Amino acid sequence: MELPVSEALDPEPRTMMVFPLRRSRVMILGLAAVLLSLAGADRAQAEAQLLIEASTGKVLHAENATYPWYPASVTKIMTAYTTLRAIKEGRISLNTLLTVSRNAAAQQPTKMGFNVGTTVTIDNALKMLMVKSANDMAVAIAEGVGGSIGGFADLMNANARRLGMTQSNFVNPNGLPAENHVTSARDLAILARALIREFPEYDSYWHISSIRYGNRVMRNYNALIDRYPGADGMKTGFICASGYNVVASATRNGRRLIAVVLGSWSGAVRAQKAAQLLERGFNSGGLAWLTPSLGTVDALAPVDAQPPNLREEMCGGHRRKPPSEENEEEPEEATSAGNESEGGQQAFMLSSLKPANGKFVLGPPVETTPPVVVFTGPADHPDTVVQTASAAPKKKKKAVAKTEGPEKAAKTDVSGKAAKAAKTAKPAKQAKPKVTSANQ
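The structure corresponding to this sequence follows.
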């Protein structure tokens, strides 16, 4: 289902011409208008939007921006921020090794799926966190940086207070459902702006379009990356209670904007609405002085309310294909990344977003972006991600029967030349058997 573009984004005012009608018809039309307006208000309440300038924090558009909301996987922006703060303070480095614990390996459902005991560098953990939205990597980071999930959550909340994120409280590093795990569009925009301003040297983490691990090529869940002109971040998220969320950034002509959309109906709709917001901001041009000033993002007044629970709307039985709980929409993956011309390149062939009838839709493929490779190697390798024997591909053992001498081994070897000879050898003449279903 595709929602109509919000009236708040319609640049043209709408007028209504009234003609003389009978009283009954006027009353019916008036009642219908009231009902439609109420329905629109209910739908608007179930979605939040915010657009700001990254450099100044100036608010360009705000709609339910200070209502509390369940963040889902956009929580991982704070996970990345907290990790980079620890690096800046010298407590860890990008080459610090994290160990996948039993708790991390048990995380569901979006994850890398490494075995317990696997070791991962902070560098590669951040790449898998931001692209794959890997919940196991989020827990591995939390335990490695904060000592435990609770200890890391304390660091996240301390950073939130320091940044002025007055509506946020974090319970875990991945955004899986928790009653007191909340934020708002306002707070997420403050966080995204801080990440951009404080850590410009790590900006590449936010717009990696895809990563390759072994034969798997995984695309970024952010559909704007390499599709919307100028898109350069940041993170998506979904749980049934929150709907489809995205924090997106884009830069044109040296001007960077941050768009936040919470509670969209689907992954495609959240991308369309984020693109619509960004497009509006970039195209305002010289007419910006006509719009009333909304101040800066930190000055927006928080609303004291409970976050909306969209579980029934997002995951109820009325949807033709209800999304899986706590799981992002899976992007296509390549099954043969080693073949660049067939599997690998096709897996990250991306499309552009083009305006059509006032909306943004996916266009034909226009660009090929090679994936960032997540390496494996020995413990002293700077790009090490996995250091466990279970992660390495197992070599197929030759099916050789146990014998005492080389002559018998040659006769019983079914994996080498002997096997080939056995296949091509002519069978001895026998009586012609009856045809049965087993021979067919």
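Residues 50 and 62 are 5 Å apart (CA to CA).
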